[in-house]
Amino acid sequence: MTTSCSWQVHQDSEAAIHRQPNLELCASSVSLSTSYYFDCDDVALKNFAEYVLHQSREEREHAETLMKLQNQRGGRILLQDICPLTGEWLNK
């Protein structure tokens, strides 16, 4: 996928630059889901839920930082749908 950048980048590198924010947002989504699962009354792992929620926010911040840097350098941001979470959390 070619974009109009003001700097020369190898195609493989450019693909990785576009892929990384999407991976960070996917990780954030999974962590967010995990956090709220652990915060359920029947699971009740409050401290772990808070830790995973913090991780979710960090992943989102990573994505935002990467996209900001890409904008500053004249690149174009290509976001994909956030990875769908399949299945449900089971409490056994």
Explain briefly what this protein structure is:
With 92 residues, the protein is mainly α. It contains 2 helices and no strands.
Query: Architecture of the domain at 14-72, according to CATH?
Result: Up-down Bundle
Count of runs of 4 or more consecutive helical residues? 2
Tell me roughly what share of residues is in helical segments: 55-70%
Q: Helix and strand succession?
A: HH
Instruction: Identify the CATH class of the domain at 14-72.
Output: Mainly Alpha
**Major sheet characteristics:** none
Global mean pLDDT: 85
Stated plainly, the CATH topology of the domain at 14-72 is called Ferritin
Percent in strands: under 5%
Stretches where pLDDT is under 50 for at least 5 consecutive residues are none
Counted beta strands: 0
What is the CATH homologous superfamily assignment of the domain at 14-72?
Ferritin, core subunit, four-helix bundle
Structural class by sheet pairing and helices? mainly alpha
Tell me the span between the first and last alpha carbons. 45 Å
Outline = elongated
Radius of gyration: 17 Å
InterPro entries: Ferritin, Ferritin-like, Ferritin-like_diiron, Ferritin-like_SF, Ferritin_DPS_dom
Family: Belongs to the ferritin family.
Catalytic activity: 4 Fe(2+) + O2 + 4 H(+) = 4 Fe(3+) + 2 H2O
Domain Ferritin-like diiron: 7-92
